[in-house]
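Example 4.3 (complexes with small molecules)
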Amino acid sequence: MKTMIELEEALEMVLANIQLVETESVSIADAYGRVLAQDVRSKIDMPPFARSPLDGYTYRATEAASKALNLKVINEIPAGFPSKQIIGVDEASKIFTGAPIPPGANCVVRMEDTEQEGNQVTIFRPVRPGSNIVPKGEEIKEGDILLERGFCLTPPAIGLIAAVGVNQVEVFRRPRVGLLSTGSELMDVGESLNPGKIYNSNSYTLRGMLRQAGFEVEVIPTVSDQIEDTLAALEKLTEADVVITTGGASVGEYDIMRQALTQFGCEMLFWKLNLKPGTPASVGQKGKQFFFSLSGNPAAAMVTFELLVRPILFKLAGHAAYKAKEFQVRMANSFEKSGKQRRFLRAQAVFKDGVIWADLASAQGSGILRSMIGSHLLVDVPANHGSVKVGELLAARWIVD
Ligand SMILES: Nc1nc2c(c(=O)[nH]1)N[C@H]1C(S)=C(S)[C@@H](COP(=O)(O)OP(=O)(O)OC[C@H]3O[C@@H](n4cnc5c(N)ncnc54)[C@H](O)[C@@H]3O)O[C@H]1N2
Ligand code: MOO
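Answer. The structure with molybdate ion bound is encoded below.
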């Protein structure tokens, strides 16, 4: 088993073994946040006919500009009611926004530039041929690919699918993720705290991150640092595509997670990432199931979820955009304790003078969950960087929310 590897190597190693989850057909009304497993191609033009963008009059304009025109109004065309009556040279139809342009007409003049008396309309400002006509297929042409496989469906995307009349789409099944927090010191919320114990918070932070990302989550009650208890808990998660554990990841006698995963039948792909926080992470594979053992330290668990687990879960879930992108930020504070390992610092993003400034959370300890509140960024400080200076440019990535 490899140990102390770079984040990118760890990602590549796991991503290479990932198989996407199966697909299913869902109604578009239930497809918000789901990931498309098909390209969506339009079978129609949108709009399906040339239409008026205004309330006004439609007629047959000529290039010759004239001061005012008097035309005979032959009918009214509301939206939804196409007219087959051909517009003659001195004729017009009263037309409303969204209504189809009738045959023979080639322009629309807005209501405000006209006056109708009886069946005669005076057009004070004649327009040129083609004015105010939305052409058929202006937005979408028949055969256009509107959305590609791997796209995560947002409200406008669902609206677009509806606009071309599609009611069912093929999407990837939501991945099922099992969560297990280990540690003999852990108690559940609602119980009164015994000496030497702390409340389990990791199950709650990770459950929220997973739900926000659109996954199905099953949370197992906390277990002690005993291998037997951990094995029994893992047995309950055989339906999960991915299992995330926290705690017991490091080097002490009670850090039993790697041993438990091995006994459970996992092949361990690596142990330890060359970064902080979250160094003692490991990943195991058993058939199609992946097991992420993360540090029990609450902030470290969240950061490792962002850096390592999220891209892999997103790939599994079918997302085309599963890789995190880095961009430059300017440091608003200094940081002395950079050290030999690559380090990800939690920071608030502040826009000032056209740049994103990274305003560091005041405490950066692996156990300090409060540092995640209001933090938008993980600033990527390279190994052996030395102290970080105010005003320095560094790479960073968003913490997804
Ligand atoms: N001798 C060494 N000791 C440690 C090393 C090392 O290299 N040599 N690594 C340190 C680093 S780095 C980390 S990170 C931690 C990781 O420890 P574990 O993953 O084994 O986690 P635990 O010891 O179980 O817990 C760490 C910390 O977090 C608290 N915790 C655990 N689970 C929860 C939870 N569900 N909710 C809230 N808080 C939790 C736990 O009580 C501990 O305080 O190891 C270092 N040690
Ligand atoms: O790798 Mo640990 O999360 O720094 O304390």
